[in-house]
What we know:
Oligomer: single chain
Strand content: 15-25%
Radius of gyration: 24 Å
Shape: globular
Number of helices: 14
Amino acid sequence: MKSYDVVVVGSGTGGQTAAYSLSQYGVSVAVVENSSTPGGVCALAGCQAKKWYYEAAETMARARDLSGKGVVATPEMDWKAVRDQKRAFTGAVPDSTRKGFQAAGIDFIAGTAAFRDPETLTVDGQPVQAKFIVLATGARPAPLPFEGAQYLVSSSQFLELDGLPPRIAFVGGGFISFEFAHFAARLGPARQIHILEAGPRPLGPFDGEMAAHLMAASGAEGIDIHTDTEITGIEKNNRGYVVKTPGKKDLYADMVVHGAGRAPAITNLELEKGSVDYTRRGIVVDEKMRTANARVFAAGDCADTVQLARVADYEACVAAKNILAELRGGQEAVMDYRAVPSVLFTLPQYAMVGATEEALKSEGIRYSRAMATNLSWPTYRRTGMKHAAYKVLVDHNNRIAGAHIISDNAAGLINIFKQAMIHHQDAGQLYWEHVMAPYPTRESDITYMLKPFFKHDPLAGL
């Protein structure tokens, strides 16, 4: 029986981070992967892959916004050409993943891992033993409970299409549906784009007011958002697909895309045999990323935590450090999710960090807010962007409790607020840090967002 210090199950971003981190300290590591294309969803069909479409869509969005402001003709976009550029990147990922493990002295084991008992894994039935195990198996599209679900196109399949049809329906009102709908609105011939959300509003984890503003921006691009829309089935006919909903008109589409969330990919692990607890949301872990089995850790989308790539990396590092502490001694590490930024790569982007206003109200936390929509700052007049907005929330100590930004650079701006939260800065301190930000830039606009918090004491924080 082959034996290692650590066996990592999964070769995505979390699995690779754990494996490389441990191997650098001389720990014997093996990575088990059941996919014929190792490398993980982020690199192959998620974060990295989608950005090829985003960059092209952003160019089109900018050109349209500047129409009449110096841009005479908007560019013509070729979905298939973008897809081919994306493939040039993703096609090299599996082989480079294998070679990277080999160069680092990490054994790569192809096959499906499962627990035989709390101390032993099997890979395609063959036992593999380790002092510690890190589960990083990721997530897959959540199963949907209606007839015709087999007709849905997955997010991975969507990014592999040769082209887009004119009528597209996205099931679910989350990250995937909003991002991909915005890609379709800029890069395809689509004339009818629908997002179908079962709940009263889409983008549940985001701030309600800001989500409504993004919905308005999406509507302006021809994306129809349907709320309180339960799907009872999808039928196929010779003209495409019919999406059935009770009490509402049938919706007709040439393609129906699964954007209704992802479920942890843990079915084949036989976690019960490994004494590892889990819920429908994923493997249960503590702040050290340890499971109910003290020898087993979990990181990334398979864990019942936040499903984001950089969170997976951080969790993997925390797990690795705690394993090293047990193997070699040293300081342990814990996770802190208080300042995790999220970004919707729509056009405009919507980024948030910290609490929503709804969360602060429900928890009875005293707060103040500054908010504005349809910003007319020169930043956005120059670009022709009509839907820029922000909301900043501060607690009773004037520290940042949450920030929400809709902009063409929301991803960069939200990182500034994330750092402020990590370092416990108050609004005044953050304001004065950005008075001398390069001007005029999106970053210099942060002073406009924060000034309302001390308008009666203009030198506060200096």
